Amino acid sequence: MSFYRIWGLTGGIYIKGIGVSSGIAIGRVFVDWKEQVEIEKEYVDDVEVELDRLNAAIEVAGQEIKELYDDVSSRLGRDEVEMFATHGMMIEDSEFIGQIKGRIITENVNAEWAVRSVADKFIQVFEDMDDDYLKAKADDVKDVATRMCRLLLHIEGSDLSNLREKSIVVARAFTASEIVQMNRDKVLGVVSQEGTLTSHAVIMARSWGVPAVIDVSNVLDVVETGDMIVVDGSEGVVILNPDEDTLRIYGEKQKEFINFSKKLSQMAGKSTESEDGYPIKLYANADTGRDVQGALKNGVSGIGLFRTERLYMDRDRLPTEGEQFGLYKKAVQEMGGRTVIFRTLDIGCDKIPGYLNVPEEDNPALGYRAIRLSLARADIFRIQLKALLRSSAFGKAKIMFPMISGIEELRLAKGVLEDVKNDLRKDGVPFNPEIEVGVMIEVPAAAVISELIAEEVDFMSIGTNDLIQYTLAVDRTNRNLSHLFSPFHPAVLRLVKMTIDNCRKAGVKVSLCGEMASDSLLIPVLMGMGLERFSMNVDSILKARWIMSQLGKKNMEDTLSEIWGLATAKDVRRFCEDRFGYLKKAF
After folding, report:
1. Which positions are catalytic?
2. How far is CA 146 from the centre of its chain?
3. DSSP label at 172?
4. Cβ(544)–Cβ(536) under 8 Å?
5. In this predicted structure, what is the pLDDT of residue 37?
């Protein structure tokens, strides 16, 4: 059991988990004792009866999801509404439902076992994916499958909409359906015994801004409704039945956090610059309208990475030119003259919609993906480029090609773009003929020849998530190798510095849009490298702006010279923690 008693100043039972939403909550517990859906495999004599049971559950589940969709449509954001639309499509999906029925018929098994076994297969596929957005799809499958199994077994679901008093809700796990039905005014914090960082439920809890801790092993064994509890989302800990000293200490921490959060909120309207007045541009990564709105609220210079592939997922056909144009145009218009950099279709590897019929590969991470797929499927690529060019007539749109490994690919992509421009000219369709074109630097080969690439583009963006993976030959989703995947590796830092230097010499704008951009220990290092443009997730903008305001550029340049003498990723990380750990602790 992963808890122990803390003596001295912090008395109580201290339980470690994973913090997913910063802040501190202090209050009484409400335990959501959901009855576990225990399913056993049974062989049946009458397959038709099981199919009838399944069809009845599908019908009721579909009605419940529709009612939930209608409810959230009036009070939640577009993303939450789309999620329940996805649930509705899943309950009608011919492949998902067809496999369940097929298992009942071919194996003569009970309906609930068929649902669970087929769902588990789909869940595993999504959880093995590298993309966080697609990982979260496993949560959708779990949600829908759990709903169907509860109906088949006549088990009542949770209802957290009528909490009587402000409480910290503790459960084994939360589904997105349960989270949206909570009365936000009554929820002080959230704790779950299970959970993943990419689940929809966690993402939604984080968007509320309430302290949340997940993966708290065995918490249900020691907590009861009415217990006093402290939830520290910043540190990822839960303290059960704290003593008076602990309550006083965490009450003070809570006030400090609230005051610091107010200070951060004041950063929204300020320019971004170092302590010694060096200007820095902050951009947001986005793939939804909510991201765009959040970026505007936080006062960014623009969208440094708009991921267009989301429009291609969650459907059984390609998006039309009109659908794409509508999305791109809206993003450009909402940014009101600020830059929006659209990354062209970056699917492949673990992000391949079934309707594309892409053949399986032995090593998909090194295969048919991103710009390679776009160039091979010029019909798809041309439609996207046409929609992107049309959107450029309404604002400051830019186009960025992903996964470029050499000049040949870049020239082919630019050639297709020029052909599409000529088609639009012939048809009299307005667009910006001088639209800027850039590339993602996420392959080591591209970083090494970045001085040559700089001669052919208007800007570059360093995608460190893939750059680290390919530089170190480490699959970042492989738990056995996770200790080797590090942005602090000297080779990674040298490739980033090389790219920044080459862009500066060529007078080409360069940004960094991977997770490194918002790392409190690496922001100082990147500033020392001379990086002037950072692009990150919306919820990191204000924190990054505050960190940058605490650092002098000249001091960071001097610090960088010390880092170059360090030989290992552990040495670099230890150095950064010693030198800049106070920035991380501030949060």
Report:
1. 200, 513
2. 24
3. S
4. yes
5. 63
Query: How many residues make up the chain in this entry?
Result: 587
Picking from 100, 98, 191, 176, the residue whose alpha carbon sits closest to that of residue 136 is 176
Q: What is the 3-state secondary structure (H, E, C) of 24-78?
A: EEEEEEEEECCCCCCCCCCECCCHHHHHHHHHHHHHHHHHHHHHHHHHHHCCCCH
Give the chain's count of helices (H) and strands (E): 23, 17
Based on its alpha-carbon atoms, the radius of gyration of the chain, rounded to whole angstroms, reads 25
Q: For 231, phi and psi rounded to 5 degrees?
A: -115, 115
Question: What is the DSSP track for 350-392?
Answer: TB--GGG-PPP-SSGGGSSBTHHHHHHTHHHHHHHHHHHHHHG
Per mean pLDDT, which of 126-135, 169-178, 214-223 is the most reliable?
Answer: 214-223
Please, which residues have CB within 8 angstroms of residue 126's CB and are 6 or more apart in sequence?
134, 135, 136, 137, 138, 141
Provide the CA 302 distance to its chain's centre, in angstroms: 19
**Residue for token pair 């576990």:** 36
Tell me the average pLDDT across 117-122: 91
DSSP state string for 290-338:
HHHHHHHHTT-SEEEEEEGGGGGSSSSSPPPHHHHHHHHHHHHHHTTTS
**Phi (first) and psi of residue 581, to 5 degrees:** -60, -25
pLDDT tier at 290 (50, 70, 90 boundaries)?
A: confident
pTM reported for the whole predicted model: 0.74
CA nearest neighbour of 496 among 540, 455, 541, 448: 448
At 20, which helix (H) or strand (E)? strand 18-21
Residue spans of beta strands (DSSP E) within 155-264? 167-171, 187-192, 212-214, 228-232, 237-240
